[in-house]
Amino acid sequence: MTDPSTAASGSSVEADQFVTGAENAKPTTTKPRSLASDAWRDLRRRPLFIVSAALILLVLLMAAFPFLFTQADPNYAELSRSRGTPSAQAWFGYDNQGYDIYARTIYGARASIIVGLVATALTVLIGGTLGLLAGYYGGWLDGLMSRIADIFFGLPFVLGAIVILSSFGSTGTTSQTQILFLVILSISLLSWPTAMRIMRSAAITARQQDYVKAARALGASGPRIILRHMLPNAVAPVLVYATIALGAFIGAEATLSFLGLGLRAPVVSWGVMIADSRDIIRVAPHTLLFPAAFLTATVLAFVMLGDAVREALDPKMR
Amino acid sequence: MSIQDEALPVGTAPGTPLLRVRDLHVEFRTRESVARVLNGVSYDVEAGETLAVLGESGSGKSVTAQTVMGILDTPPGHITGGSIEFKGEELLTATDKRRREVRGSGIAMIFQDALSALNPVFTVGFQIEEQLRVRRAMSRKDARKRAIELLEQVKIPNAAGRVKQYPHEFSGGMRQRAMIAMSLALDPELLIADEPTTALDVTVQAQIMDLLKELQLQRQMGLVLITHDLGVVAEVADRIAVMYAGRIVEHSDARSLYRRPSHPYTEALLESVPRLDLKGTELRSIKGLPPNLADIPSGCPFHPRCKRVRDVCRTDVPPQHEPEPGRLSACHFAEELVAGD
Amino acid sequence: MTDNIIEVRDLTKHFPVRVGVLFKKTVGHVRAVDGVSFELKRGETLGVVGESGCGKSTLAQVLMRLEPPTSGQATFEGRDMFAMKGAELRKLRRDIQIVLQDPYTSLNPRMTVGDIIGEPFEIHPEVAPKGSRREKVRDLLDVVGLNPEYLNRYPHQFSGGQRQRIGIARALALKPKVIVCDEPVSALDVSIQAQVMNLLGDLQTEFGLSYVFIAHDLSVVRHLSDRVAVMYLGKVVEIGTEEEIYERPTHPYTQALLSAVPVPDPELRGKRQVIRLEGDVPSPVDPPSGCRFRTRCWKAQDLCAQEEPALVTRDAGDHPSACHFAEQRAIVP
Questions:
Q1: How many B×C Cβ pairs under 8 Å?
Q2: Is B137 part of any domain?
Q3: C195 touches chain B (CB under 8 A)
Q4: Is the pLDDT of residue C152 over 80?
Q5: Residue A3 lies in a domain
Q6: Distance of CA B225 to CAs B202, C118, C284, Å?
């Protein structure tokens, strides 16, 4: 998993410095603009952003309204058409069981996206909150939380996930939603330290700024300083991490499914499809190719989006 | 554009000066705008003299120096016109190789922030020696000896021990001395000092200025001192070029400039600094802000802030001319100022 | 009731120097402020001047109660500042405000100017009812000489001088009695510096403010101050009226400082007294024994290493000076 903390942390501070340097080159009479809208203006002009955003939008549409893309039933199998190659009726062909791969790829987006979105939200929420608290209070609290994060950080991701999923999800009685929940939980549990580290270093940078000192001199309370002053200035690097992590988590779901630990049939997901194609790759490569291509494109789109967002939020890279 | 062409800077001796900058134009281009950072800057520097370039942030004083050194970031910077001659040799059209040769051995530069100008992972001695070994093909031993000599010249106590230390082990003043020693390693004929004492405490600042003066005298170097501090300028400069919005608005010898400024901007600057020796009631501040370089006011760029503004200032760019012998001013009414009204 | 709004007695602030990753060990203390006493009279400006590391900014932090003092007392209008809690502390926060040095980092870049100047009212809602806040913010912008319509802009749309005005407006919002100015003009250009200094002067007259004006620029301090304290390595070495310090300094350090300040007048070149100190300021972790200035002082004798000079008025001077050999010497031309 990528760790963008080195590249992204403290980017909000650099943004200010850029403004300092360009003071005289920047008209002071323009209409009010916030830093976020500046970033948005910048983003709209980046081809990298437009391509990745369009791709992501498409995948999100597939996840929300799969029936817009295909009339075929992803759960209807006919063994007679097993391993059928791509044709006019089935653009991506049929898999081992005779399922329509195109329909399944479209419907599979939903599970993958849910895992990605929820796991990211959870990771950012846990890591961000802990990082913010550690950054603000410092001292023993910071020490304790950082050491706990280090322990989780030391666990290899796949090994950790295997341990969690196989010890809680191995019993045959677990339902599909439970497995989905477990997959999300294990991904978040193993990933929050990265988010925490990024947020912590950004929060420490923000905390040392003079405006925090000024707020303290006014008698501002801890929560006010954290929410009004530190969070808005520290959130940018975590947002960048979140976009990249989303792609990575979709990949992680596929990995776990492929290993037989994550989602499994009858749930349709790209990971499940890749797992199903495992034994027939050589005779029917299209069964692997299409879900894998969608997976790769989606992951890549999120990583590219993260890159574009980082550059937009860090004007030094313009 | 041509206004600067006709007028030559003061103090131009016959023959070739050490450094001759003529009608330099530089733009900073960003996606949104084009900032005209230098709009026809001309000056000469002779060996052994000190030219102070005085200006506030955004006046173009550092950009001029960076362009002369050939270290301007391009992009966003674009040199759109002018010439820079070092001992009669045109630098702007010279090859990269030739420019590198001139850098260090012909023209050297010291910066405001010595901590970031020195590489933190190498010892101070190594950084001086490296230049000597690469550019002068000196042996390791000779280079070390020379580095110690240089550190002694800039009055670093225990130079033989200090040479093995890292920049962070030096105090602020010592670090600045080390950077000066480094810039002198290849015996440059011209030294450009960009705000060399701004980051230092006043007692250390005085030490460093004394040192620079002494070294200049010893080596008969030309010195371009870039600063915003009217006090420092008054103490060391032979000639002063005052910059505003990428132009030299006044170019005089030091005494005349302080006695009777020939440009209202210089006049206003002098009135706005608090002085140690005078306890005034109200400082005469300059109203308004420095201009936006992407949208420089019409006519005289200083006119919106000038207390002597008249109609002609709003429409006509004042040509640079000599209100009295040996001085240049870019004000329509320089003669009145010089005469005193 | 005295006319001293703030009285400070033997104030010290030591920062521990810790090493180690897991088990931190204190190996020494940075003695940033080490026994400082002064009083601030109502309506006056006390200039605090000194070089970097002399503890002047730490002094500001402790006075603002941003850092707890290591020892010593301070009273605000006769009440112990460091003992205050709860409602009393909130009242103190309203009465003492701070203007910080860097106009680029002292304003939150993600908040509009209206929100920045209005924040004091959110923290102290009793000062202004909700409906009147926007109007108050406009008034404050007007007072510091900014267009009240700038309310919805962000700090990055302003120049350094304008940002410093915003910082001053925020400090004024709660109608404080004392403003601690920590290098308020040192980051500004010359022409802008004068504007901000004049503004500070005008506001003092208009609102009857008392200033603790901390700066390293002796010219700026002289221009604004009624009385001046000169600090060196955590101690006040000389204190007196502006005239006493600038016209009749008696401490060698003050004299050297004044001598080092360049005067913008080429006619004086070579005619001024030159006192050049050797070396840099020693580390505040391990300051010299006795008089802390003795390592750089041309007058230093054995006595200076043995005995710390008290800050008292001696025969040779008319104001307190912490030098065994204090004598008057006119430095400023």
A1: 138
A2: no
A3: yes
A4: yes
A5: no
A6: 17, 44, 33
User: Mutation test of the interface with chain C: which of B174, B202, B214, B253, choosing the one with the most C Cβ atoms within 10 A?
Assistant: B202
Bridge partners (DSSP) of residue C211 are: C45, C179
Q: Does C220 touch chain B (CB under 8 A)?
A: yes
Among residues C244, C296, A119, C174, the alpha carbon closest in space to that of B206 is found at C296
Written as one string, the DSSP assignment of B6-34 is HPPPTT--SS--SEEEEEEEEEEE-SS-E
Nearest to B58 among A24, A28, A318 (CB): A24
Measured CA to CA in angstroms, residue C185 lies from B291, C171, C193 at distances of: 20, 15, 6
Instruction: Give the distance from residue C119's alpha carbon to the nearest chain A alpha carbon, in angstroms.
Output: 8
| Residue C323 touches partner B, C-beta closer than 8 Å | no
Q: What is the mean pLDDT of residues B205-223?
A: 88
Q: Which residues contact C220 (CB under 8 A, 6 or more apart)?
A: B274, C185, C186, C193, C197
Indicate if the pLDDT at residue C227 is higher than 70.
yes
Quick check: B294 contacting A, CB < 8 Å?
Answer: yes
What range defines the domain where residue A239 resides? 35-317
Has residue A7 got a pLDDT over 50? no
CATH number assigned to the domain comprising residue A192: 1.10.3720.10
Question: Are residues B238 and B254 in contact, defined by beta-carbon separation less than 8 angstroms?
Answer: yes
Task: Sort out which chain C residues have CB atoms less than 8 A from A23's CB and list them.
Answer: 159-160
Taking only the tens place, the pLDDT of each residue in A195-214 is 999 999 999 988 888 899 88
Judged by DSSP in three states, A74 sits in coil
Beta carbons of A25 and B33 less than 8 Å apart: yes
Across A124-133, C22-31, C231-240, C297-306, least confident range: C22-31
Q: What pLDDT score does C22 carry?
A: 60
Assign residue B300 the CATH number of its domain: 3.40.50.300
Residue of chain A nearest C151, judged by CA positions: A32
CA triplet C82, C85, C88: central angle to 5 degrees? 100
Q: B247-253 and B328-329 as β-strands: parallel, antiparallel, unpaired?
A: antiparallel
- Domain assignment present for A5: no
Instruction: Quote the number of domains for chain B.
Output: 1
B42-73 pLDDT, tens per residue? 888 988 899 999 988 888 888 898 898 888 88
Task: Please give the helix or strand (H or E) that residue B82 lies within, else none.
Answer: strand B77-86
Backbone angles phi, psi at B89, to 5 degrees: -100, 125
Q: How far apart are CA A290 and CA C54, in angstroms?
A: 69
> Number of structural domains, chain A?
1
How many beta carbons lie within 10 A of that of residue B83, not counting itself?
15
Give B311 to chain C, closest Cα distance, Å. Answer: 24
**Residue C267 contacts B, CB cutoff 8 Å:** yes
For helices A139-154 and A101-137, the axis angle rounded to 10 degrees is 150
Domain interval for residue B24: 3-95+229-274+292-339
A226 domain-assigned: yes
- The answer to the question of residue B195 being in a domain is no
CA distance C317 to chain A (A): 38
> Is residue B83 in a domain?
yes
Q: Which of C119, C152, C159 sits opposite A28 (nearest CB)?
A: C159
Q: Does a structural domain hold residue B297?
A: yes
Give a yes or no: residue A141 inside a domain: yes
- Write the pLDDT tens digit of every residue in B7-44: 444 444 556 788 888 899 998 887 778 888 888 888 88
Q: Hey, what amino acid is at C157?
A: Q
Encoded tokens for C202: 């005008």
Distances (CA, A) of A5 to A9, A20, A240: 5, 24, 9
- Enter the pTM of the model: 0.79
